[in-house]
Design brief:
- This protein has helices at 57-65, 79-85, 95-102, 150-165, 219-231, 276-325; strands spanning 5-6, 9-10, 41-44, 74-78, 89-91, 103-112, 115-122, 127-129, 142-144, 170-179, 182-193, 199-200, 216-217, 239-243.
- The protein is an alpha+beta fold and 328 residues long.
- The chain has three domains: 5-88 and 147-270, CofE-like (60s Ribosomal Protein L30, Chain: A); 93-137, no CATH class; 274-328.
- The N and C termini lie far apart (115 Å).
């Protein structure tokens, strides 16, 4: 059972009507910082079923939401149904080739009893195990690749729902990612449209009046993770509806917003960019260079000392020779 989630208390599945008349979220004015949601409702969207290549996701999601869908809502869509609709399915025996094709940079790898796990940066700039190629929640004998352009997929959903249902909504497309230094996985935004994905609070006062200098909240990732509480991995529910975050929805701005790409940290700002192989190679080069320099310096010093001693000895010998020649 995966009922709607409201605040911190699950709704009663006997009385909740997830795809029908969802409760209204309180209206609030957008200030320099959007006000905190007084009531946040996250509802699973049932009735979508197994998605096939070429199916119209706008139609499937719109019909499943029905009259419960309103402007200001945010739809959180698992990337798997987007990939299926876009035909991003391959036979399982082509998995290794698919991972290789999707990979642009190896970050780390580890061999274990079950094989080798590779953490890579894929062509979308996302760092993930096996480049995001996945065999879960797909037909037996197949694997799924991530959507070609998750941000573009999200924009198509926003436009289609506006055209067919007359609503301005935000869309977040999600995938499950691991996290360095933390056990377990969580859903994160890999595509987005129609909403702010980052909330920049730098310069605003905190609750004590001190200006914040580093706080930029990844609200799209927070929404993705929260929605997975009702979508789950085994419930067969690929879409959740989030209500209560109207101030994040950028009505009419879906073609100008940067999408989930804005969540990717630029290489020049990434303090942990190097993977184990790269770090090892840099360490080897640095060690070789340092060793060469140290050897050169030591050799130079030793040569100087040896040359000085040899020169002194030669000078002394020459002085003795001259003394003997002069009969002294």
């Amino acid at each position: 059972m995966n009922p709607a989630w409201t605040g911190t208390v699950p709704a009663d599945p006997e009385t909740e009507t997830p795809n029908e008349d969802l409760p209204e979220a309180p209206a609030s004015a957008l200030g320099s910082e959007p006000p905190a949601a007084e009531r946040l409702v996250i509802t699973p969207v049932h009735g979508i079923g197994e998605v096939q290549a070429g199916e119209n996701l706008v139609e499937l999601i719109g019909q499943a939401c029905g009259r419960g869908l309103r402007s200001g809502d945010i739809l959180v869509v698992t990337s798997k149904i987007v990939s299926k609709a876009e035909g991003r399915t391959l036979p399982a025996d082509r998995r290794d080739d698919a991972v290789e094709q999707e990979t642009v940079r190896l970050v780390a790898s580890r061999t274990h009893a079950h094989g080798t796990t590779r953490i890579v940066e894929n062509r979308l700039g996302i760092v993930a195990a096996a480049a995001g190629v996945d065999a879960s929640n797909t037909a037996e004998g197949t694997v799924l690749l991530l959507p070609l352009d998750p941000d573009a997929s999200a924009r198509r959903l926003c436009r289609g729902l506006k055209q067919d249902w007359g609503v301005d909504v935000g869309v977040v497309i999600t995938d499950t990612l691991g996290r360095p230094w933390r056990q377990g996985q969580t859903d994160a935004a890999i595509g987005a449209a129609g909403l702010s994905v980052l909330l920049d609070l730098r310069g605003l006062p905190d609750s004590s009046g001190r200006p914040m200098s580093a706080t930029v909240t990844a609200v799209a990732d927070e929404i993705a993770a929260a929605a997975d509480l009702v979508k789950g991995k085994t419930f067969g529910v690929p879409v959740a509806l989030v209500r209560g975050l109207d101030t994040l929805v950028t009505v009419g701005g879906m073609d100008r917003d940067p999408g989930a790409k804005a969540l990717l940290r630029p290489a020049e700002e990434d303090m942990f960019r190097q993977g184990t192989a790269e770090a090892f190679e840099d360490g080897r080069r640095s060690g070789t260079r340092s060793g060469y320099n140290a050897g050169y310096d030591d050799g130079h010093a030793a040569g100087y000392e040896d040359g000085y001693a040899a020169g002194y000895a030669a000078a002394a010998a020459e002085a003795r020779r001259r003394a003997r020649s002069s009969g002294g």
